Please model this.
Amino acid sequence: MKLQIVPARTGFLWVKLGIQAYFKQPLAMTGLFFLFMAALSVINLVPLLGNFVALALLPTMALGLMMATHEASQGRFPQPTVLYKAFRADPQRLRGMLVLGAMYAAGFVLLLGITSLVDGGEFVRRFLGLGGSAGSSDNPLELQQGMLVFMALHLPLSLAFWHAPALVHWHGITPGKSVFFSLVACWRNKGAYMVFGFTWFALVMVGGLVVQILAMLLSLPALMGMGILVLTLLTTSMFLTSIYFTFRDSFTADPVEEATPPAIE
Model:
């Protein structure tokens, strides 16, 4: 496995390929996204450990969506079981994915702990749906500070695990090294990733503007809320679909790996 440096314009190509792959199997990719969210929501309902387990499963299920994208890009219909294929890997890769999930969950919890140092736990209570503390509405600045800290720290956490699941599963890299290589890949190709992010941001903004204009022209205020909901679901599904291509182009296989490419199954 070797890191591949790509030009900044590749970020736009990733968006394009993600959209194309999505529309090859739109029902399947949308359904998998709903299944992805539903599974995490149900797990979150489990008392005490539910939130932690859901966080730990995120890398594995994200890998499942990458597998589904590969299937869709090849013109095949991805089955719902693709989300859990990582659990059927060999013991070494399965153990690596479980460790990676625990690392992500621990990192996320640490991140929430840091925000508590800033706002006294106000953001964490809102995040967990516990409501604000007494008198919290009188000082919204603390909540905003916690939210800003969370957003600032969540970006490097996300980048650290951006490619990590695929590196562990498809290339057999250890969890610690996969996190490091993921960060390096994102940094070395920062131009492409910035174009990738800004392109998706622009698409969302333009889509939202179109929905607003249509709602105004048709004098249908209800269209606004419904249109924004559909736009959010659509763009999120396509965004998740495009992640596979960021991994595919950021790493190249070694000669040995090319002779025996890692199976999607």
